[in-house]
Structure prediction request, 505 residues.
Amino acid sequence: MLMTRSHLSDATLRKLPAGTKIPAYDRGRIAPGIVHLGVGAFHRAHQAAYVDECLAAGETDWGITGVSLRSPDTRDALSPQDGLYTLAIRSSGEEELRVIGSIQSMLVAPENPSAVLAALTDPRTRIVTLTITEKAYLRAAGGGLDTAHPDIIHDLANPQMPKTAHGFLTEALARRLAAGTAPFTVLCCDNLPANGATLHRLLTEFAALRDARSVTAGDTGITDHIANGVAFPSSMVDRIVPATTDADRARIASELGVDDAWPVMTEPFRQWVVEDNFSAGRPDWEKFGVTMVGDVGPFEDMKLRLLNGAHSGIAYLGLLSGHATVDRAFADPAIREFVDGLWEEAIPTLPADAGLDTSAYTAELAERFSNTALAHRTAQIANDGSQKLPQRIIAGAIERIQAGFRPECLTLVIAAWIAACEARGKTLPDNHFTDPLDTALAALGERRTLERVAAVFDLAGFAKGSPERQTLIELVAAHRVHIRQGGAALALSALGILPAIPGKT
Prediction:
């Protein structure tokens, strides 16, 4: 007779094997203080883990209410487990299991937007954090709000029943203002440049459109409040979090003796740099390794250009070379040498007076990329390239051209992205990874290389308005020719000493 194994929950916590770390606090005494939008694996490996440590230290008013803006999958997995899940911290030689208890409840916005708004307007909510991915900020090619997006149009017409983060935040702040409740701090944790300022600008733009449609047109209403009365600190987050597999679930269940529907895999390294600008208080995160600073910018640029930029290059070149995971791609001598070249191009674009130790940082990255236990899929990193490349690759490439150099490695990443998109359904499986521009890219049809690259730049808004745009297009087109002629191997072998661009100093 088959035995039915119980699942992870408050009731089974004390039955877990010795050595498993469990919440060191009474979960029944925790009050909600944070609403998090976008409860994916990264949040559960990063911000929720930091908050878990704060709760264990006695800061009991910072429990998390998790909100999924789209899918019920995370709620359906965690609710039967009382919000508990296992964080598996894996290195090449060992694994540490830790049960996280900081998520108190889960809401699914499409099912019950009123409940989400109630959580956001609860006076106990003092911080709203976001990990909704770059594409969910609904930016147009020029960087402003995509006012033609159907969900933006819906939210402007139906402020009481929003779909987007913009709609939920604006309506909640409007309700709090009307009730005389202090605004919450909005803390963006996504990989956007100057993410706090970027979200502040987008939300102010959305609020202005909303006010313009209201019956009180002419009254600045919520726009002025968001523009001048709400804190939007920037932050930089870093932790590698590969997708959880069924094999991971089976292994965790075997080790714990209980089922966990959605454990999270991660690496030992973690980093969180936060601008210390909170209007309604915050946890003492600095006690647990968070770096609170006045300016996140230098840390953000280093991470975007050295970690995320290298990750994108490894992903697209790895896919074109048949490497399914980061560690396997990074073990490829040609790709390993390419990453060093990318870092050589990117490091000079970082501020020299910010005290950044790029040598130590890249050495640590090399160790992290080599972690064989994570099995971080190149296809996972490849998603949404059109949204990620501007801040990871293109900004640095423009600066290198302005300094008089040819950013060969940086522009190869863009060419590899284009080639990887084109390879789906051919040498790569259909939908192996996705991009918001997939439909538009497919509609381009066959074109000559230079013309096609220019069309892709137009669609994605790459380097829009930059005098360096044409140089970037020509460099990318040259790489694309190599890839089409001999794959990633030829493109990589064509890289050599990077000469200065004639006429530049």
In short: The domain at 305-493 is CATH 1.10.1040.10 (N-(1-d-carboxylethyl)-l-norvaline Dehydrogenase; domain 2).
